[in-house]
Amino acid sequence: MVSPTSGGARRFLPWMIGLVAVIAAAVVVVVVVTNNNNKSTATITTSAATTGPSCNVTSVAEHELPAVVTIMASGAVNGGVGSGEVIRSDGYILTNNHVIAAAAGSGSLDVIFDNGNSAHATLVGRDPLTDLAVIRVDQSNLQTITIGNSSDLQIGQPVVALGAPLGLSSTVTSGIVSALGRTVHVPGEGSASALLVDAVQTDASINPGNSGGALVDCSGALVGIPTAGATTGETGGSIGLGFAIPVNSALTIADELISTGSVTHSFVGVQAQPLAASATGQGGQAGGLWIISVVAGSPAASAGLRAGDIIRSIDGSPATSTDQLMALTLTKRPGDRVELKYERDGAEATATITLGARPSST
C-alpha cells in the first residue's frame, strides 16, 4: 500500500497498487558475476512517456557511472543485489538499508565498480526507519558522485536513473520528475515499515536492483536515491511509478551514520488515529487526529496533551494522517519545536512541543 501526499495541504491517499523495495533477488548474482572481468557497457533506455526536453543521457552516463556501484549482500539465509554511489573519495558509499540488510549480522558485502573491479565492503551504519545505509570500501581517490540539491527540483524536469536493475550493472534509464512531496510507506524490517518523506516520484524505469542507486539531473548531479517502485500486482516490473529519497535528507542521514554509526531520531510520545469529520461531533469541523494515548513523561505530555484531544493542525498544516507525526520524527531533530493546534471538550488550544530523542526501544 502506498500513501502519497501532494504538496501544500498534504493529502494522504491510499493507492491500490503494490509497492516493492527494489532490490534484486540473490538469483541474479550470476548475471553480475559474469560481467566482473570486463568494463561494463552502459545500457541506456528512455521512458516512452517522456516528451519535451530531455537530458544528454550519454554524457550523464559517461561522467557519473564511474561513481555508481553494484552491491552484493549475502547472509546466512538470503541475499540480494542493489546499487549505491560513492559520496566520499575515501570509500564511503550511500545505499538503501534494505539492500544491505541481509549482511547486517554476520554476512558479507561486495561492491562492483563500473570498470569491473570489485572490492569487499564493511557496514558503517544503517537506519531502517529512513531505509538508508552507508558502507565503505578500503580504497582512496575514488570518483564521487556529483551532489545536487533536491530542493531545486521541479515537476516535469528530466532526470536519469543509474544503477543495477536485475543485477545488470551500469544500466541507465531516463524520464521526468512526475511529482514531488510524496509520503510513501515501504517494507521495513520484521513487521515494521520505513517511511519515505517528501519522496521524488519519477517515471524513469525503477526495477529490482535499482535500490540505493542514483537519480540525477541533466548535469549529472545526484538529486535522489531510488528506493521503491510500484506495481499493479500482475507484474514485478516497472510501471512508471518510482520513488526516490531526496538527496538533501539522504545526505543528512549519511553524514550522521559516518560520524556516529547510527541515527538519533526525534520523539513526540503520542499514539493517535485519523478521525473523520463526521465522527468528531464538533459541528462539522474538519477531521483530525484523535489522541489515543500519551506516553508519560514524553514531550507531548510535557506540552499538556492528553488522551482524547483532537489534533487539528501540525506546524500550520491540517492534521489528516498519522504519517505526519511519523514524518516529524524523521525530518526534525531532538530539541526542535513543533506547534500543534488541538481541540479538547469543544475548546481550541495550542501546544508547543519540544521534541525529544527517540528511545532505543521505541
Unreliable segments (pLDDT under 50, ≥5 consecutive)?
1-18, 25-41, 45-51, 280-284
Q: Please outline the major beta sheet.
A: 6 strands, antiparallel, barrel
- The proportion of strand residues reads 35-45%
Overall average pLDDT: 84
**Distance between the ends:** 23 Å
Q: Helical content, roughly?
A: 10-25%
CATH class of the largest domain: Mainly Beta
Quickly count the domains.
Answer: 2
CATH architecture of the largest domain: Beta Barrel
Q: Please state the structural category.
A: mainly beta
Give the radius of gyration: 21 Å
**Count the strands?**
23
- Describe the global form: globular
Give, in spatial order, the strands making up the sheet with the most strands.
10-11-12-15-14-13
Number of helices: 7
Q: Write down the secondary-structure element order.
A: EEHEHEEEHEEEEEEEEEHEEHEHEEHEEE
CATH topology label of the largest domain: Thrombin, subunit H
Task: Give a topology summary.
Layout: E1 18-21, E2 24-25, H1 29-33, E3 43-46, H2 57-64, E4 68-74, E5 79-88, E6 92-95, H3 97-100, E7 108-112, E8 118-127, E9 132-137, E10 158-163, E11 171-187, E12 193-202, E13 214-216, E14 222-231, E15 242-246, H4 247-260, E16 266-267, E17 270-275, H5 277-280, E18 288-294, H6 299-302, E19 310-314, E20 317-318, H7 322-331, E21 337-344, E22 347-354, E23 356-357
